[in-house]
């Protein structure tokens, strides 16, 4: 048996992940051509590299198809119900930083906090006959956050891309999206709401709790963690 | 999974339904698939986390019914004659992210009375019939009255806007408390005070901030700024009044003691007098139906974390020694819901549901 490690299959997230493992003496590489999503591992025995879309890694860990996975902490929290019961966080990897924030038009000078958003949503609904729409792809995180803070009269509308444009296009009144610098928000005349983001995300190494762990797998994993200098939780 | 035919559950359901039809209820069978829009409008986005959603190519987004009350009210408001009483039995569906060991589909048997002639008598009838059906189980019973808190808020010596904000969050106790604390304080955060200064001086703060995008208009933003400026001038809700609201929400006593205590509170907060006398009248109506009201518990906050449509009498029956089990029965009055779903028409209504599988599980051990 081998321990399956799921890693983002493209872009900076993949490169940074390869670097992170490389700095710790485990060399990950893509096998064959650019288009082939299999990889090789040198420096750790019994570990198999699986290249996957970052968005699919939470689900694959939850299903027990992979033992370990690297993905954004936001994706794990949003895609898995009670994520703590399904995966454990092994290491924050120090890259892929992004904050999930709520943003509203800059012209909304009366809205600085979630309290304000709630009051504006109540008035908006009374005036327009529908709830204030918030465009996002992070449904669970946003809904939990708004419930915890007692915001009502809003509606989540799904937006899988170009979310910042939805307000101008009048398909939403506000958005909840990932931002690293806020430049895109500003360019779209949006401002971040509140002091604290909904979630501060970064690339994180996770261990699946439900994967079929044999004693051999555990031993392989323990050796890998020792090499990486991280601790199993 | 349950066996192909669960005869004991079927028998329990039949027993409950038979008693309700004997009390004059017409048996109804609302559809499992409900328009999602209606439920979302009522409960907000939270219901999406609790109900199963599906899609129909023609009807659009649908939900598997998370309860019976909404479809029964809709059916009644569309073509029911009054007064009316209904009974039903069938599955409801709720996702169970928070308690994964609880079933996500289960049977409910329910009873609803639409009758404005004597509301406290109708409250007592629904409660008494459920108490009778569950009597052998020796359950812990909690009761409350949402009308009490509504009356207390409506009678506060403050602006209509503040009252509306509090009423809107009666079902979110934490938020309600935070709002009450804010309205009880005279301080305005410095950044907000600076903004309101500019508004008072007539400066175009909206135009200076950024271009108008989206459907929320400049007029709406300016209206809220004016409301905020007005609110900043509003004197705080007095400590005396907030303390009385606290007394009400933390009240937990047997019915006679609760009524005594509430009558004391009503001396300082006269706006709750009618609600308190209604609780008293209901207690008498319950006693007339053989309920031991001296032992019945009354909680000032009961019903505030339930689905937000009860606005009067509320009750729940619990297995006291099994806190892991959901309530065996719950119910209450929902006059306002009939107005929302009746498109202008309204009728006083009260009802309750029993979970026969839970009743059966508790009954089996005795």
In short:
The complex is a heterodimer of chains A (233) and B (366). Chain A has 233 residues and is α/β, with parallel strands linked by helices.
Walkthrough of the structure:
The complex is a heterodimer of chains A (233) and B (366). The model of chain A has no long low-confidence stretch (mean pLDDT 92). Chain A is α/β, with parallel strands linked by helices and 233 residues long. Chain A has helices at 11-23, 57-62, 73-79, 83-86, 114-128, 139-148, 183-187, 215-228, and strands spanning 3-8, 27-30, 39-42, 47-52, 68-72, 87-92, 98-105, 132-136, 154-158, 174-179, 190-192, 199-201, 203-208. Chain A starts with a strand and ends in a 5-residue tail after the last helix. In chain B, 46% of the residues lie in helices and 17% in strands. A nine-stranded mixed β-sheet of chain B has the order 1-5-6-12-11-10-7-9-8, sandwiched between helices. In chain B, strands 2-4-3 form a three-stranded antiparallel β-sheet. In chain B, helix 4 (119-134) packs across helix 13 (273-288). The interface between A and B is large, with 39 and 37 residues.
């Amino acid at each position: 048996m081998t321990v399956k490690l799921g890693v983002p299959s493209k872009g900076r997230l993949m490169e940074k992940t390869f670097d992170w493992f490389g700095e710790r003496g485990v060399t990950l590489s893509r096998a064959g051509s650019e288009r082939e999503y299999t990889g090789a591992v040198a420096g750790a025995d019994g570990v198999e590299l699986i290249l996957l879309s970052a968005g699919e890694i939470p689900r694959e860990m939850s299903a027990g198809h992979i033992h370990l996975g690297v993905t954004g902490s936001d994706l794990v929290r949003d895609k898995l119900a009670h994520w703590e019961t399904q995966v454990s966080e092994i290491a924050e990897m120090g890259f892929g930083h992004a904050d999930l924030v709520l943003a509203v038009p800059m012209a909304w000078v009366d809205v600085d906090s979630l309290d304000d958003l709630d009051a504006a949503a109540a008035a908006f609904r009374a005036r327009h006959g529908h709830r204030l729409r918030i465009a996002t792809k992070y449904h669970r995180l946003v809904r939990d956050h708004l419930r915890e803070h007692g915001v009502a009269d809003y509606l989540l509308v799904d937006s899988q891309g170009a979310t910042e444009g939805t307000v101008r296009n009048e398909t939403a009144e506000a958005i909840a999206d990932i931002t690293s610098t806020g430049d895109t928000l500003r360019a779209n005349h949006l401002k971040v709401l509140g002091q604290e983001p909904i979630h501060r995300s970064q690339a994180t190494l996770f261990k699946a709790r439900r994967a079929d762990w044999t004693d051999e797998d555990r031993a392989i994993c323990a050796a890998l963690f020792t090499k990486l200098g991280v601790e199993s939780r | 999974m349950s066996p192909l035919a669960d005869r004991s559950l079927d028998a329990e359901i039949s027993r409950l339904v038979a008693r309700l039809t004997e009390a004059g209820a017409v048996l109804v069978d609302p559809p499992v698939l409900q328009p999602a829009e209606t439920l979302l409008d009522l409960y907000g986005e939270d219901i999406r986390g609790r109900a199963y959603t599906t899609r129909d190519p023609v009807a659009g987004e649908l939900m598997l019914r998370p309860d019976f009350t909404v479809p029964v009210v809709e059916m009644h408001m569309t073509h029911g004659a009054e007064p009316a009483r209904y009974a039903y039995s069938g599955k409801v569906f709720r996702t169970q992210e928070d308690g994964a060991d609880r079933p996500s589909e289960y049977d409910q048997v329910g009873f609803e009375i639409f009758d404005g002639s004597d509301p406290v008598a109708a409250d007592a009838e629904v409660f008494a019939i459920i108490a009778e059906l569950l009597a052998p189980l020796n359950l812990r019973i909690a009761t409350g009255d949402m009308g009490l808190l509504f009356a207390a808020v409506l009678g506060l010596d403050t602006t209509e806007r503040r009252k509306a904000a509090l009423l809107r969050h009666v079902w979110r106790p934490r938020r309600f408390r935070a709002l009450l604390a804010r309205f009880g304080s005279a301080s305005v955060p410095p950044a907000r005070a600076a903004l309101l200064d500019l508004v008072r001086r007539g400066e175009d703060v909206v135009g200076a901030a950024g271009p108008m995008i989206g459907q929320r208009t400049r007029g709406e933003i300016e209206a809220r700024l004016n409301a905020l400026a007005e609110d900043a001038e509003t004197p705080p809700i007095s400590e005396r009044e907030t303390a009385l609201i606290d007394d009400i929400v933390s009240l937990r006593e047997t019915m006679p003691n609760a009524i005594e205590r509430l009558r004391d509170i009503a001396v300082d907060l006269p706006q709750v007098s009618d609600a308190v006398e209604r609780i008293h009248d209901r207690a008498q109506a319950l006693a007339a139906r053989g309920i031991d009201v001296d032992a019945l518990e009354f909680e000032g906050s009961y019903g505030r974390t339930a689905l937000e449509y009860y606005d009067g009498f509320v009750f729940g029956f619990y297995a006291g020694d099994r806190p892991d089990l959901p309530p065996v029965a719950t119910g209450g009055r929902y006059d306002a819901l009939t107005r929302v779903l009746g498109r202008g028409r309204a009728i006083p209504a009260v009802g309750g549901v029993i979970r026969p599988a839970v009743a059966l599980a508790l009954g089996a051990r005795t």
